[in-house]
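Translate sequence into C-alpha cells.
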Amino acid sequence: MSAQATRKAAALLSIGQVLAKLGPEFPDLSPSKLRFLEDQGLISPQRTPSGYRKFDAADVERLRYILTLQRDHYLPLKVILSHLDDIDAGRAPQIPGANVRLEAPSILGTERRRSRSELQTEAGATKQLLADAISAQLLPGTEPFGDAAVQALRALVELQRFGIEPRHLRGMRQSAQREAALIESALKPMRGRRETGSQAKAAEAARDLANQIQAVRDILTREALGA
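Result follows.
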C-alpha cells in the first residue's frame, strides 16, 4: 500500500467514531440508525474487505446534513433522498417547505452557528423582536442559533409587518409540545421493539406523523380563512 493510500485509510472513521463525532449534536444517532439510512440509500459508506463500514469526511458531512434536515425541517427520508439527488446532480434545490435555497457545496460544510447579534442581523430583525420571540418561546434562549432559528425569525419579521407579534403566537410552543406527546404516545409500541432498526423506523414515522398533522392544520387554517 502506498503512503498516500495508507493516509487515506487512516482518515476513515468507524461507526463508533462517527457516533462520537456527531453524537453531541444528534443524541439519538445510533448504529442501527446509520444502517437504516444506508438501507434507504441516503448514505453509502465504504466497506473494508472484512465488511466493516468506514466513513470519510464527505460521508460524515452528508450524514450531518441529513440529520439536520430531519431535526430542523421535519422532512421524511424519501423527501430528503430526492433533495440529495438534486444536489448530487449539481442543482441548487430549495429545502422543501422552506424559503432557503441551498447551493450544492453546502452539503460538504457544517451548519453555520450564529451568535444572538448575528441571528438578528441575518434575519433583518430588531433587537426587541428577537427578545420577544425568545420570551414567547418561539426561539431557543441560548446561543448558538442554527438555520432553523434564522428561518423562524425571518417569518416573524414578515408577520410583524401585519401586526402579528410573537406574543400572539405564544401558544404555539405548547401546541407543538402537545402534538409531540401525541405522536410519542402513538409510537410507543414501535419504540418498545427490540428489532434492529426499530428506533430509526420510529424516528422516521414520527416525522411523517408530524407532517400529516401539519397538513391537517394547514387545511383547517385555509378553511377558516375561506381560502
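Note: The first strand starts at residue 46 and ends at 47.
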